[in-house]
Known about the structure:
Blueprint: E1 9-14, H1 19-29, E2 34-35, H2 39-42, E3 47-51, E4 54-60, E5 73-75, H3 79-88, E6 94-99, E7 102-108, E8 114-118
Parallel strand pairs: 1-4, 5-8
Antiparallel strand pairs: 2-3, 3-4, 6-7, 7-8
Amino acid sequence: xxxxxxxxHVQLAAPPESEEQARHFFHTILGMPEIPKPEDLxxxxxxxxxxxxxxxxxxxxxxxxxxxxxxPALRVHSLELxxxxxxxxxxxxxxxxxxxxxxxxxxxxxxGNRIELIER
Length: 120
């Protein structure tokens, strides 16, 4: 039996005072509902989102450096719908070869962090 039951959340770094940019991308463009941060953590800055039961935490980091290689791979119901949504907002979509038969592509958040979207 494995010790692990799944992934609770992923954290991506962002520069200070970037919460509104994060909200625009993760909530407005991608449609992820915002999750209130616990009061004791809210003072640190950042913002959290629900991604179908997995949480995406945007944490403030200074100095900030985007993750260009390491990345979360977020599952979507429709890769084409996700692509259309990103393109509607003139957001970059970088095609990628399927992974084990699953179509996917890369984009990036407003801070340059790499994000993979995959349809399984």
